Amino acid sequence: MSSALLSLAELSAEERELVAHARAAAERAHCRYSGYAVGAAIVGETGRIFSGCNVENASYGATMCAERSAIFALVSAGERLITHVCVYAPGEPLAMPCGMCRQVIAEFCRDAPVLVAGPSGALRRSFADLLPEAFRLAVKGEP
Predict the structure, then answer these.
(1) CA pseudo-torsion sign 107, 132, 25, 21
(2) Which of 41, 56, 122, 124 could make an SS bond with 117 (beta carbons 3.0 to 4.6 A apart)?
(3) All structural domains of the chain with their residue ranges
(4) How far apart are CA 96 and CA 31, in angstroms?
């Protein structure tokens, strides 16, 4: 996966669609404390796109990141496998998934492409690049 910043025009049609979903989710963010809106679009194994936004709370520990919000929607819909991740923030810096979100993503994928985008462009990464040697527990009956 490339480490260079790509223009949004350089992205594939599928990637631009994910960015559009994540951007729309960011517009719905509740970020009255930080002012830093983030949206995420997660693709499940059926190809369905699940979106989420960050929802802040005066009790900061109760805040939910966009990535986890989208993943919880995926799980609530009965899916368990993430095939693509896109995170969008309309400001700088680009919104790389935090450590907690990386661990939650690890629960539902082995190595999905991750696209981190903003108005200035996008970065492509593999999930394994973001969280090498992720902590996972062996679950009986799963590979």
Answers:
(1) negative
(2) 122
(3) 8-130
(4) 17
What does residue 129 show for φ and ψ, rounded to 5 degrees?
-70, -35
Query: Catalytic one among 15, 56, 67, 79?
Result: 67
Q: At what angle do helices 13-26 and 66-76 cross, to 10 degrees?
A: 110
Q: How many CA atoms lie within 13 A of 90 on its CB side?
A: 15
- Global pTM? 0.92
User: Is 67 an annotated catalytic residue?
Assistant: yes
* Second CATH level (architecture) for the domain 8-130: 3-Layer(aba) Sandwich (3.40)
